[in-house]
Amino acid sequence: MIAENLVPLASLAALLVLTFVLLRWRKRSKPRWVIVDGSNVMYWDGGTPNIAPVKAVLAELTRRGMTPGVVFDANAGYLLTGKYRHDYALGQMLGLPAERVMVVPKGTVADTYILAAARDLGAKVVTNDRYRDWSDAHPEVLEPGFLIRGGVREGAVWVE
Asked: Taking the complete model, does pTM exceed 0.90, yes or no?
C-alpha cells in the first residue's frame, strides 16, 4: 500500500527534475551576447595596450551572466605582443574559444564588424567609442544602453 502511494510521488519528483533541467538548458541555449571592442578596451588602463583590462571585462560580463565575444583590429597582436596574432592566439590569451574572438582583416575597420555582429546577435557593445561615423547605417548606437562604457579605476575594471 505504501509503495503504491510512492509511485505517483516519485513520478511527480521525476517530472519536476526534468522540468528544472529543461528550463536551465533552455536558458543556456539562448545566450545574452555582448560584443567587446577589444582594441578600445585594451587601452582602458593608462592608455597603453594591455590585455589585462580585456580579460577583466570578460570576467565581469561572464559574472553577470552574459556571453561575450571580442573583436580586435588587425594590429592588436602587434600592439600587445610585437607580432601578428590571429583569433585563436588572442582567444588563448583571453581564455576564450577562437569562435568568440575575431581579428578583422588588415586594412579593415573593426567598427563595421563590431556593429554588424551586435546587430546579428541582438547584442550590446562594450566600448568607450561613440561610433558617431556609423550612426546612419547603425542608428542603434544612438539608443541609450546600446553602448556600454567602462574603464579602470584604482586598478579595478568597471563596466556600466
From this structure: no
